[in-house]
Amino acid sequence: MLSIPLLPVLRGLPDDHPAAIYNAVESDKLPLPAWSNRAYNSLLQDGHLPLTADSERSLSHKILLYSHSSSIAATSLKLTLVDGVVVHASIQLHESRWIILIGVTMCRPAILKNVNIEDLTPVGQLLFKYDWASTPLGPMLTWPQSLKSIVSIMLSNPAQCCVFWGPERTLLYNDAWAKGSASKHPQLLGQPGRIAFKEIWVSFSDYCDLVYSGQAKSKDDDLLFFDTVGQPGYDHLTSGYLETFYSWSYIPVRVEDGSIGGIVNNCIETTQKVLSERRMRVVRMLAERTSTAKTTLAFWEAVFDVLRAEERDLPYVLCYTCVTRPSGIESDGGDTNSDFGGSDGSSCLSRGGLRNQLTLVGTIGVQAGHPRASPKLVNISDPGGSEDYWPFAAACAQTEPLLAKNPCPEVFESRGWGDPTGAAVCIPLTHSDGALTGLIIFGLNTRRLYDDDYSGFHNTLVRNLSSSLSAVQSFEQELVRADELRTLDRAKTAFFQNVSHELRTPLTLIRGPCDDALRDNHGTLDPVNKARFKLIYRASGRLLRLVNSLMLFSSAEARRLQAHFCPVRLGPVTADLASLFRSATERAGLDFNVTCGDPTDERVAYVDIGMWEKIVFNLLSNAIKYTKSGGCGIPEDQIELVFSRFHRVEVADGRSHEGTGIGLALTHELVKLHGGIIRVQSTLGRGSVFTVKIPLGYDHLPQRDVHHEVNAHNDDVGLYAATLVEEATSWLGEDSDTSSNLSQGSSLESIIAPERFLVLLTEDNADARAYIKSILLTVVSDVVVFPDGQAALDYIHEYGRPDLIVTDVMMPRMNGFQLLAALEGDDDPNVQAIPVIVLSARGSSETEHSSEGHLFQRAVDFLSKPFSSTELISRVQTRLRAVRQQQELERQVRERTKELKVTKQRFQRISELSPVAIFETEEANRDVITYANERFFTLVGLPRCLPLDFSDVLRRIAPNNHEVAQSAWAEAVNDGKAVHFDFVFANGKNTFVEIISLNDGRLLGTLTDQTEQRRFAAEQLNSERAKADEAVHQRRLQEAFIDIVSHELRNPLSAIIQSADVLTGSVSRLNDIMQSLKGMIDSVEARRLFTESEVELEDARHAVSSVSLCARHQTIIAGDILFVSRLDSNLLTIKAVTFYLEDELQAIIAMYSVQAAAQGIKLNLTTGSTIGRDTCILADPTRFVLACFSNSCRILETWDGERLINIEVSLSTTRPFGSTYAQITEDGSRVWLVVQLSDSGPGIPLDDQARLFTRFNDVNSGNGVRRSSSLGGTGLGLYLCKKLAELQGGQIRHISAPGQGAAFSFFIEARRAAPTGVRRPLTVRSSSPLPRSNTSTPTQKPLNENHHSLESTNGNLHVPLMSPSFEVPRSTMLILIVEDNLINQRLLQRQLEKARFQTITANNGMEALQVLECTLDDESKIYPSVILMDLEMPILDGFDATRRIREWEKEGKLPASRLPIFAITGNARQGQVDAALGAGIDKVYIKPYKLAEIIEQIDLDGFPR
Predict the structure, then answer these.
(1) Which residue in 434, 666, 1048, 1475 has the most C-beta neighbors within 10 A?
(2) Distance (Å, rounded) from C-alpha 1239 to C-alpha 1192?
(3) CA-based torsion, 369, 374, 376, 379: positive or negative
């Protein structure tokens, strides 16, 4: 706070008198004021006074002068702000320290009156803050009103607008103009026109001169180039200029004297409009030119003609097409380049051993074939391209345009603006299916940025090119495909010819024996077998005719048919041939008229009788096949195709669907061989007329085939007719004899009586129909047959559904697939459900995966021909078995429906009596409730009226619950999910809602009034919370009590034990002194006194031993009792960690080695083969063996015999003994750690074994004798062992016999773990190594063989009086003892000093920190080597003191090496130990501690500092 006498005066200055106080310090810059009044603060902007440059320099200079001298008188100065405000100020020095500035402000410029600068646009704010005093315009206060007005208009103009003012054409502009100037803003503001527009000023200065003469000037779409050198974002423009287009106008502005003071420039950028029109013109011309191209060559010529004309946006172009070649096949010559620029021409193989190659089709602006700029052939490879080549592979691998650097711009032409060529964009050409068809590289305009519009132009070009190229390539491919089809047609003909030849041999072996059997006159064939042979003979005849037709057609098409043309009176011959079909036409009920001209006509025609027979018979058989009542006719679009090979007219009204499409094609070829023609006229639904004309005479025939004698005998004449007549007869109906015989044979062969089923069979071939019917009659009782699907469908509609339908596929009128579609589309669901077996001459997989087979979602079974009777019977029985099951299910459904009706009535009665509100919704509209019980309306509070919209229920819900209820209801309605939620009605009723979706789509919901339950639950919850809080409080009190008892018991016990140890050492030392004096004084009286002293010392020794034994016994008792208390209070926790098992076992053995050495006990550790040096497990390492170990040591302490403890440890993958628990999902890591611990003591009596593991059971030793020095135990040791094992998933049992020593086997559950990488260091506990078997002893530091760190004298431990030889002398080490209990402090200090250590004490943590500070400040004082720290202390406890020391070490206030800190505390709980270690304690010793262990650790870790 400033204290200056003038301060009240300065505070009282008027609002237009700014004042400030500066501190008189030396500074080259204007400092900030130490104080300023409100008027001064109103002038600040961003915390600074916005002075012009001159004013800021002047004020800084004045303050600097006052800072250097105290004799300068007050001076005045004029300060100008950037917005034109003027401050007339006075500056003076006050009290040689403070510089006081007092001023008065002049009015703002007129342009700023009533204007808040903060409300202006960004450019407006910048304009008013600008230092106009440094420009020719001068401060704003001096501007003429005309300039202020025009600037005000300019700033409010939303369009681009700027002002050139004064002789220098100083530039001012608005926000829209600033946005258009891009990166040149704000540098252009206030600049002269010649500098701001230096790139176009040559032409624009003339315009300005013209405007200054009083004329206005304007232009539309004016091309302007702006300089982009040095501006960010324009580095790739090689020319340094940006192509833009503007429509602008220059308007003169007159000032107050009538002269022209400046120019108003209104402009609109039209760059995008001009560029869009230019680019769309290219797109339109490209589409027009390429649309007429029919070949790829013409297409690319049109492309290059159009693109070459646009030099600015397309300065150079490279076009490539993609060709896929097999691996290892090189192209024919030309330059080849791989994408990564290698010289070996290696390429990347694509899938299937193919590789893609790009072939150059043309260039613009560069010579084709340049190895780097325009290679003719490119092998697309995986590695990324280098800067020396175009990135072909990367561009082809993506769908978006890829910007690429020109690898060698020097070889490209300077088209367009004449600038050096720049970068390019690579865009792949793709087919409609995404396949790569090519790549095009567009050079970029050197004076335009590659923005979205430019990219869109390229994408439009590429899309048009891709589609047009695909169309042209598709057209060319169609031409190639047509040629391939012609080749394939010829190959197919040759194939059928070869197959026909190969089929004749097996047909001979089929027809020959069959004919012999039928001609046998001995009557060896029964009627059934004879009927079967007739079927075989007729079917093989059809196949033979087909083979002959194929061979004849192939020969005729290949012009290799050998004809025998002879003179024939064609009329009579034709009449004789036609008469063979008389019986068939009469049986079909057709009128058969034969008119063959005048019988007296003697003119002859030269024909081949066999061929003419086939012509006539083929036409007549087709007429019978497709004429039922007036003829079916041929569709108009297929009339021209009837004579094509393998073409069959799909008509609906034929007698049969059989045929190969060869008959009319063969007829056509045979007529052509006779030099004649055949024509057809047809009307769909009425019939067809076939006309055959052949010329008379023989001049038109090959002379080698003309024979003038009449062929009187031709064996083949009539055979062809017989087969056709026989086949035509089969279309008219079944052979009754054959059918009856087959049926009779089927019934005789049937072993099981046919079931009562009706099967409907549709098959257009009579023989096949009779044969299949005979098979079906072996398994069913009734079979009805029909020649086509329409007849079968009519039967179903008239007489009802059959149990099964067996249908052929190829049939007249309605084929098999059409029948299936009709069944599936039937209105009767029973008809839709009829099972169907489809018999097809196609392959089974071909039929099932055909487009027709995929249409049906019904029970359809496909059986391909030929099939055996066994296979058909199996399929039929399977389907009928399903029918039987369906009938049974339908019966059950009817019964179930009846039961459901009864159940629904029962449900409604129950729901009316239910205390829960129940409702159901409509199936179609789930928002409408169609049923609700009485309780529902009572709870909701609505009148009983159904149907009810659920929204009415939602409106009665409390507003704060409405959103949750609405969301849950929407989820149930829309998704059909089961939901449950709570809400409160507006009347305060708490309601729980459950909603489920039924199978039929309805929703079933319940509303339960939980108002009373919620109130009771809330009261009960509050009660339980109070109980839980009380339990937690009691638990904390128990834990605190246990901690206090543990601490307060261990402190005095520790003092007693340590005092006993001191006394023991003192007595021993006095005894040594007396023995030394005994030899020095030789008198009777002296010997008597020495003798009495020895007796007294021996009594003292026994007394001290008793005190030490009692104290240690009390320590064990206190530990056991506290342990049990924690166990009973659930304060004991098991903490599983990962550790090396062998290291932990060694650590436990080392822990008891001191006690064992003192008691003369030998320890032996044996590990099984399952434990190695690197074996890690996850368990609690501190609890699994300690209790049993302590128990054995205590027992052996009183044993006179051999003292030996054996420990055997192993890992087991199965539970060793005890109860077997339910196995959980295992990952293979669970193991059991098994420990067997035995001692050589007296064992446990048989009577005591039953109560070994109970509380307070102090079991006597096997001999029943206890030493006088033994005080017994609490009877808790083995009980604690049992509890610890159970807590860790294990068990314990006693396994020894009486008198053989005590032996226990126990195990705990653990997990295998990965090695942690950090092994636990082992501390030397004893001077002698521990004997082990089957394992190696870890390397330990040997102690001096001439000195033992521990000695045993009557069971009491003596501390070593000197350090081991390998350590530093103890006299050089200072031990800091921090202990608030003075007794324990003095005892510990005395013991350490006896061990030759230097000591220093502190009563609390604060004093300890002061000791450390003093040792650092005074070099004569020794810095501690080790700190022995108590934890519970006043002022500053051990935890905080340790944390402070560790922080000082990190901050470097203490020596860099870590100071060892050992805690000596009565806090024995594991959580307290962990807290100490977490605070930075290195090791924790629990009172009463073993001093020998502490000294040994000091010897290891301590050293002079």
Answers:
(1) 666
(2) 7
(3) positive
Least confident of 10-14, 299-303, 670-674, 1098-1102: 1098-1102
pTM for this one? 0.36
Q: Report d(CA 1106, CA 1120) in Å as an integer.
A: 21
Lateral strand order in the sheet of 979-984 = 948-949, 928-932, 917-921, 1003-1009, 990-997, 979-984
Q: Which helix (H) or strand (E) holds 1248?
A: helix 1246-1249
DSSP 160: -
Q: What pLDDT does residue 345 have? A: 34
Rounded Cα distance, 932 and 1004, in Å = 10
CA distances from 66 to 7, 25, 89 (A): 19, 9, 15
pLDDT tens figures, 778-822 = 888 899 999 888 999 999 999 888 989 999 888 888 888 889 989
The model's pLDDT over 1195-1219, given as tens digits with 9 standing for 90+, comes to 666 677 788 888 899 999 898 887 6
Q: Which two tokens stand for residue 1392?
A: 């350490």
Residues 6+ apart with CB under 8 A from 577: 612, 613, 616, 617, 721
Question: Binning pLDDT at 50, 70 and 90, where does residue 384 land?
Answer: very low
Residues in contact with 613: Cβ distance below 8 Å, sequence separation at least 6, in sequence order: 577, 716, 717, 718, 720, 721
Query: Among candidates 1237, 1225, 1250, 1227, which has minimal Cα distance to 1285?
Result: 1237
Distance of CA 874 to the CA centre of its chain: 50
Name the pLDDT band for 1231 (thresholds 50, 70, 90): very high
Say if residue 563's pLDDT is above 50: yes
Q: How far apart, in whole angstroms, are the C-alpha atoms of residue 573 and residue 1148?
A: 124
Q: Which residues contact 1206 (CB under 8 A, 6 or more apart)?
A: 1164, 1166, 1236, 1237, 1238, 1239
What separation in angstroms does the CA of 441 have from each of 282, 412, 473, 1191? Answer: 16, 13, 21, 90
pLDDT band at residue 1108 using 50, 70 and 90 as cut-offs: low
- Give the number of C-alpha atoms closer than 13 A to the C-alpha of residue 972, restricted to the C-beta side: 27
Q: Kindly report, residue by residue over 1377-1391, the tens digit of the pLDDT.
A: 999 888 788 888 888
Confidence category of residue 660, pLDDT binned at 50, 70, 90: low
Residues 1249 and 1292 sit within 8 Å (Cβ to Cβ): no
Q: Which residues pair with 402 in a beta bridge?
A: 426
User: Hunting for tokens 């769309």 — which residue is that?
Assistant: 280
Task: Pull the structure tokens for residue 300.
Answer: 């690319």
Strand order of the β-sheet with 75-80 is 35-36, 19-23, 98-105, 86-94, 75-80
The predicted structure's pLDDT at residue 599? 74
Q: Are strands 377-379 and 336-338 parallel, antiparallel or unpaired?
A: parallel
Residues with Cβ within 8 Å of 1410's Cβ and at least 6 positions away in sequence, in order, are 1402
Least Cα distance to 1276 among 1042, 1120, 1419 occurs for 1120
Interatomic CA distance for residues 594 and 1234, integer angstroms: 112
Largest CA distance in the chain: 191
Tokens (6 digits) for 446:
């050197």
Confidence check: pLDDT of 1264 > 60: no
Neighbours of 77 (CB within 10 A): 16
Distance CA 1027, CA 341 (A): 82
- Name the phi and psi angles at 1239, rounded to 5: -130, 170
155 near 174, Cβ under 8 Å?
Answer: yes
Contact 650, 626 (CB under 8 A): no
DSSP 779-805: TEEEEEEESSHHHHHHHHHHH---SEE
End-to-end Cα, the chain, rounded Å: 50
Distance between CA atoms of 509 and 514, rounded to whole angstroms? 9
